[in-house]
Amino acid sequence: MNNRLNRLKSIMVLDLSTHYSFPLAEILVAIMMMLSFYLIYSNGAFSLYFEIPPSIPYTESQIIVIYEQWTSSHSFRTLASAIWDYSFILAFFTPMLAALSFGRDIDAGTFRTYLSYPISRRHLFFAKEALILAIVSGTTSISFLIGLLSLAPNLEVSFPLLLCLATLWTPTLFVSLATILIAITSKSLSASLFGGGALSFGSVISPLIFQSMDTLLVAIINPASAIMRYIFDEYSVYTLQSVLAGIIISLGISALLLIITLKRFEAMEI
Amino acid sequence: MRITKFFIILGIAFLLASFLPSRSANYESIVVDRNHYECFLVRGAGNLFVEASGVEDRNISLYVLSYDDTLVLIQEDSLENTTPIFMKENILHFSDVINLPERDWYGIVVTFCFVNSSFGETSLHIHIAEVTPYPAPFFLFVVSEVLGLGSFIYRKREL
Asked: CATH fold of B22-131, please?
């Protein structure tokens, strides 16, 4: 077990000093952190305005319900809006890193050098994929959580908040695996970069273009948009079920993609 | 040596994040009926910059209420049974920093002092912003820089 972990660590260190050589990884992490903080702070500011008596004729009990609902769901709304904005940034960075990490290695022949080391292809694959997930989703998840805790120190980490954080991982996993599969199939950096980019932006933009798209499908391709729909639908249980089902299906597709990609990666001729 | 550079660059990112101009609320020309209150719910702690003025030099009053008192205001439609944390009454223009005791929800309430009863309605400008630097990223900046410099000194000593 220790030996395996050491192998994974050594590939990650090697990747950090080649693909993410100084200061590329540092700048990427710094950009991710800054954007996460900015989005949390800009979305978590002064979000409620009351006119008393209100211009829309609410009953007194309705106003109190609105008041309590808005204040109690503030953290969830803040994180959901920030993650929705962030999905566009993820759509840019994920295919780019996956294409650089895999596409460039295969295209430039660096992969042959890797195979001369006593490292299995499976270890190589998992170490590189873990590094992409850590840089893109790991750093942003941590900074979103710190930003949110600084807004609401008594924050109870509830199920909807965890769901929001999960949406930072599922599209990254799906898009990175798809980009890697393109890289393995085409053995070209440019094909994986453009293919992964098109897939990534397509999945982010399509819920905006096709507004009538079913929430289940939206949750599969862009879960952040599905969570925004859940808020617009006034926290309907039916929408939440669709969001959850979509995320689970998305994970299932990613698992299938992982098996196919790994098989192709192990059988790939260099 | 890379870990030193990593912490220093990360610290700079946190420093920039702590000064990002994002948390503000701007409301222009809100029409206020006679005897109406305008209440802005804010969540924060520490210093909060508030700027409020009525059009045509009409006098205003500004109150800062706690979460529970804001609920009382909504229920009773009156400030009578509330204890404002901060208040300024009968002023033309307000532009100052208000200190909020702890991180919580607060109601910033603005109302007009109608001297002449013939005034039916008027409008209001209000701007609310949290004073930078934000404490959390600034704290992380200090931690990152301490770690970066600490690892730098440690390496130098080892050599």
From this structure: Jelly Rolls (2.60.120)
